[in-house]
UniProtKB/TrEMBL annotation:
<dbReference type="InterPro" id="IPR017261">
    <property type="entry name" value="DNA_mismatch_repair_MutS/MSH"/>
</dbReference>
<dbReference type="GO" id="GO:0030983">
    <property type="term" value="F:mismatched DNA binding"/>
</dbReference>
<dbReference type="InterPro" id="IPR045076">
    <property type="entry name" value="MutS"/>
</dbReference>
<dbReference type="Pfam" id="PF05192">
    <property type="entry name" value="MutS_III"/>
</dbReference>
<feature type="compositionally biased region" description="Basic and acidic residues">
    <location>
        <begin position="1"/>
        <end position="20"/>
    </location>
</feature>
<dbReference type="InterPro" id="IPR036187">
    <property type="entry name" value="DNA_mismatch_repair_MutS_sf"/>
</dbReference>
<comment type="similarity">
    <text>Belongs to the DNA mismatch repair MutS family.</text>
</comment>
<dbReference type="InterPro" id="IPR007695">
    <property type="entry name" value="DNA_mismatch_repair_MutS-lik_N"/>
</dbReference>
<dbReference type="GO" id="GO:0006298">
    <property type="term" value="P:mismatch repair"/>
</dbReference>
<dbReference type="InterPro" id="IPR007696">
    <property type="entry name" value="DNA_mismatch_repair_MutS_core"/>
</dbReference>
<dbReference type="GO" id="GO:0003684">
    <property type="term" value="F:damaged DNA binding"/>
</dbReference>
<keyword id="KW-0547">Nucleotide-binding</keyword>
<dbReference type="GO" id="GO:0140664">
    <property type="term" value="F:ATP-dependent DNA damage sensor activity"/>
</dbReference>
<feature type="region of interest" description="Disordered">
    <location>
        <begin position="885"/>
        <end position="907"/>
    </location>
</feature>
<protein>
    <recommendedName>
        <fullName>DNA mismatch repair protein MutS</fullName>
    </recommendedName>
</protein>
<feature type="compositionally biased region" description="Pro residues">
    <location>
        <begin position="885"/>
        <end position="895"/>
    </location>
</feature>
<dbReference type="InterPro" id="IPR027417">
    <property type="entry name" value="P-loop_NTPase"/>
</dbReference>
Length: 929
């Protein structure tokens, strides 16, 4: 069957009275109308629904397929790699068409959403048979039941289980003539989490990078702001302008009150007008995409400015916190430290890594929890086993709340609550519980009372994905359902039972209950018995239907009811199951707040147990954190590099780092951080050393133990990392321009409590330009900022600044040379390097030997001006400004070696004595020649 004929059959099944070929709507004027037939009713309906949903791909339900037409079909066929066909004409041209099966729609939706598309799902809202009753021109009623966008999906198959699916709304107000204050409302519909925050324009990019939303919505005025154009280009989120003015705080406040059914917002905390406006924007967008369905959200929680370690987008990229430079999770810090056993725990771990805390008391509570589980190995193993069997309750609960749940979501809550009760029992017998563990135990103590038993009694062992498939209620849960199922599966037994009873009551052993298409079920008896049944007292029970030559046929009220029940058994059974489902869903939603709290507690336990498992497995240690500017780590390792080396069976060389200010400065109130200049060879490990110290600060403040023998850190408020080189040709930015933009952001935003990591500043331009820029940056960090900083460079001239700047010191990566080869020891020691060993690295990379030899000659001439110490001579003395010696001539080709050739042609084992003597004479002659 061809594609076109298959589509035609589907269309006929859906709307049998519709013409086979659709035509476009008629142009204006009678003559034109006569020349071109009108659009079919179905196509007119499609055009009307599409016009009401501009900017979205319309999934138009036709039987077992979702069809797309016109430009939507062209876009979808390219995006999904499916066949583009055609159906009828419109405006004189063929109508492009493609379709996807309903049963596989989630797979195609996932691919479209991942590409940033938004989809309107249009369903048939009546049976095609009903449409036929209205006449041949009638079409099946259809309505858009949902708008699917990247930030509003809830289906399990469309979501990344280990990643939050945030919808972020922005609002703003003018804070000054030169700046704005932004309100942010972040909602994860898949879990119901709702947070509000306020931030200035300078911190907006970093906050968006921290949240990593899937979709951002805002008023058109914000989207059109040219100062934000780069932000919209850089983000991976789908950006959706709402095409309306600034959010009205008054209407936004009403929307919030209606959402949570309260008369005042005072119980939720103090929110600014911009936060309320952002909340109104996000609620408006949710209502619009969910077509009025009430989405269960947790009360909004305010996240105060400065509550988390500020990490800008460039630093996140450079440090590869959650993704590598290529965008992969594998190879990132998150992948290296994730030992969680549940999806909710994995999401919480990623959230804490993206926004490490600056609340010292909170961090210490998290460390207390990890330390407790490190010490209690047996309890940790039992908890992780229980956590592993707890499904993702938060997302299952959200799907139940929005009406998109299936039986497996109810089972997820049943199993999750059962695991929660088991964990609560274990924790109750564990004695004094510290930090987050004690809080989790209290939340889990009473959750799910009675609900677990109800769900366990109601749900079958094997469950379908979709509730309309039925057969998800356990046998014996409701007698009425069992009877309907029995009628559906074993109608013959019920008929036989009634037949046996009627035969006994009438005394007619030949009484039979039969069935045909005309009469349905009927009772057949011999003629003589039939005459008796026409009389009292039988005529009140049996109703005459038909007289045959030798038999009579009857029916009865009881048989009619049985026939009706048999005919409607399947539908009745499904209706009863759906009714039970709704009752169970209502019971679940009655305990939604407690279930959400339990899900949150389980996630926190999972993260704490993950950190503890990691600490025991890799010998990580608890860091000491305080309010000072201390930064002292001993025996530190890079967690990602160490993991890679461990797989390869190689050791990681641990190093220490001290960026702490002096005690005298601390006592005088002038404490400032130390700056460490790191020099050494390429490939020696400078970047690894820089990154590992930044990652240790992140790990410590997220609440984890750290890969070091010991660590004492003062809280960091902002982390900046400028490592590596990249250009941005799309905006006309060279590698050096990108480097300078990121460096400027660091110097302008870093504070005394910040940690700054800079690698190779100034290397993207001319030597002396770059040297002067790097020099000035060091002085600024030392004299103006006063922060803790690591500064890696190949400008060896900068090491001399340690003699002039009191809080600046030098460190270098040890190397040794053996038989002309350089050996990288990866050990950081005090001092300064005098060489970069670039030629050795170039040789290892495979540069031609002639290039390496020529480079050695040039390097020797460049170093003549300073006695071979490897420092650059004054510009007037550089041989580059004089005539360099010419490149050496290539060595001549070796002359033929007759003696060697003769020896190479001999086979001693195969020579006779005479041949050996002759060969000896030939060799002697060749030598004498």
């Amino acid at each position: 069957m061809t594609m076109d004929s298959d589509l035609g059959r589907r269309l006929l099944r859906d709307e049998p009275h519709e013409p086979a070929d659709d035509a476009p709507p008629p142009p204006r004027g009678r003559r034109a109308a006569a020349a071109e037939p009108a659009a079919s009713p179905m196509m007119a309906q499609y055009i009307e629904i599409k016009a009401a949903n501009p900017g979205l791909l319309l999934f138009y339900r036709m039987g077992d397929f979702y069809e797309l037409f016109f430009e939507d079909a062209e876009v979808a066929s390219r995006a999904l790699g499916i066949v583009l066909t055609k159906r009828g004409k419109h405006g004189g041209a063929d109508i492009p068409m493609c379709g996807v099966p309903v049963e596989r729609a989630d797979d195609y939706l996932q691919r479209l959403i991942a590409l940033g598309h938004r989809v309107a799902v249009c369903e048939q809202t009546e049976d095609p048979a009903e449409a036929r009753k209205r006449g041949s021109k009638s079409v099946v009623r259809r309505e858009v039941v949902r708008l699917v966008t990247p930030g509003t999906i809830t289906e399990e198959r469309l979501l990344d289980p280990a990643r939050a699916n945030l919808l972020l709304a922005l609002a703003r107000r003018r804070a000054s003539e030169s700046g704005w204050t932004y309100g942010l409302a972040a909602v994860d519909i898949s879990t119901g989490r709702f947070t509000l925050s306020e931030i200035d324009g300078q911190g907006l990019p970093a906050e968006i990078a921290r949240l990593e939303p899937r979709e951002i919505v805002m008023a058109e005025a914000i989207h059109a702001d040219p100062d934000l154009a780069r932000l919209w280009r850089d983000t991976s989120a789908a950006v959706t302008p709402l095409g309306r003015g600034e959010a009205d705080p008054a209407s936004a406040e009403r929307a919030l009150k209606e959402q949570f059914g309260v008369a005042t917002l005072d119980g939720f905390g103090a929110f600014s007008r911009t936060e309320i406006a952002a909340a109104g924007t996000v609620l408006h967008y949710i209502a619009r995409t969910q077509l009025g369905a009430r989405v269960p959200l947790s009360p909004p929680a305010r996240q105060g400015a400065g509550g988390s370690l500020l990490i800008d987008a460039a630093t996140r990229t450079n440090l590869e916190l959650t993704r590598t430079l290529s965008g992969e999770r594998a190879g990132s810090l998150l992948a290296a430290i994730d030992r969680t056993v549940g999806a909710a725990g994995a999401r919480l771990l990623a959230e804490r890594l993206a926004g490490p805390s600056t609340d010292l008391a909170l961090i210490r509570r998290r460390h207390d929890a990890v330390a407790f589980l490190v010490a209690e190995g047996a309890l940790r193993a039992e908890l992780r086993a229980d956590l592993a069997r707890a499904p993702d309750m938060a997302r299952a609960l959200s799907r139940i709340g929005v009406g998109r749940a299936g039986p497996r979501d109810l089972a997820a809550l049943r199993d999750g609550l059962d695991a929660a009760r088991s964990i609560a029992t274990r924790l109750a017998g564990a004695g004094a519980l510290p930090g987050e563990i004690g809080k989790a135990a209290r939340l889990l103590a009473t959750v799910g009372d009675g609900l677990v038993e109800t769900l366990a009694a109601a749900l079958a062992d094997e469950l379908p994905l979709v509730r309309r498939d039925g057969n998800f209620v356990r046998e014996g849960y409701r007698a009425e359902l069992d009877e309907a199922r029995a009628l559906q599966s074993d109608s013959r037994r019920f008929v036989a039972g009634l037949q046996t009873r009627y035969a006994a009551e009438t005394g007619c052993r030949s009484l039979r209950i039969k069935h045909n298409n005309l009469l349905g079920f009927y009772i057949e008896v011999p003629q003589a018995v039939g005459e008796t049944l026409l009389k009292d007292p039988w005529r009140e029970t049996f109703v005459h239907r038909q007289t045959m030559v030798d038999a009579m046929r009857f029916t009865s009220v009881e048989l009619g009811e049985l026939e009706s029940r048999i005919a409607n058994a399947a539908g009745r059974a499904l209706a009863l199951e759906l009714e039970i489902f709704e009752a169970l869903a209502a019971a679940v939603m009655d305990q939604a707040a407690a279930i959400n709290a339990a899900a949150t507690a389980l996630a926190a336990l999972d993260v704490a147990a993950s950190h503890a498992e990691l600490a025991v497995e890799l010998d990580w240690t608890r860091p000491v954190l305080d309010e000072s500017l201390t930064f002292r780590v001993e025996g530190a390792r890079h967690p990602v590099v160490e993991a890679a080396l461990r797989q390869a069976g190689e050791p990681f060389i641990a190093n220490s780092c001290d960026l702490s200010g002096s005690e005298n400065e601390a006592r005088s109130g002038r404490e400032a951080g130390q700056i460490l200049i790191v020099t050494g060879p390429n490939m020696g490990g400078k970047s690894t050393f820089l990154r590992q110290n930044a990652l240790i600060a992140v790990l410590a403040q997220m609440g984890a133990f750290v890969p070091a023998r010991s660590a004492h850190l003062g809280l960091v408020d902002r982390l900046f990392s400028r490592v590596g080189a990249a250009d941005d040709l799309a905006r006309g930015h060279s590698t050096f321009m990108v480097e300078m933009v990121e460096t400027a952001a660091i110097l302008n935003q870093a504070t005394r409590r910040s940690l700054v990591v800079l690698d190779e500043i100034g290397r993207g331009t001319a030597t002396f330009d770059g040297l002067s820029i790097a020099w000035a940056c060091l002085e600024h960090l030392h004299e103006v900022t006063g922060c803790r900083a690591l500064f890696a460079t190949h400008f060896h001239e900068l090491t001399g600044l340690a003699r002039r700047l009191e809080r600046l010191s030098n460190a270098t990566l040890k190397v040794t040379e053996w038989k002309g080869d350089v050996v990288f020891l990866h050990e950081v020691v005090p001092g300064a390097a005098d060489r970069s060993y670039g030629l050795q690295v170039a040789r290892l990379a495979g540069l031609p030997a002639s290039v390496i030899a020529r480079a050695k000659v040039i390097l020797a001439d460049l170093e003549k001006g300073d006695g071979g110490r490897g420092r650059r001579a004054p510009v007037a003395e550089l041989p580059l400004f004089a005539a360099l010696p010419p490149a050496p001539e290539p060595p001549p080709a070796p002359k033929p070696d007759a003696l060697r050739d003769l020896l190479g042609g001999l086979d001693p084992d195969g020579l006779t004595p005479r041949e050996a003597l002759d060969a000896l004479y030939r060799l002697k002659a060749a030598r004498d020649a």
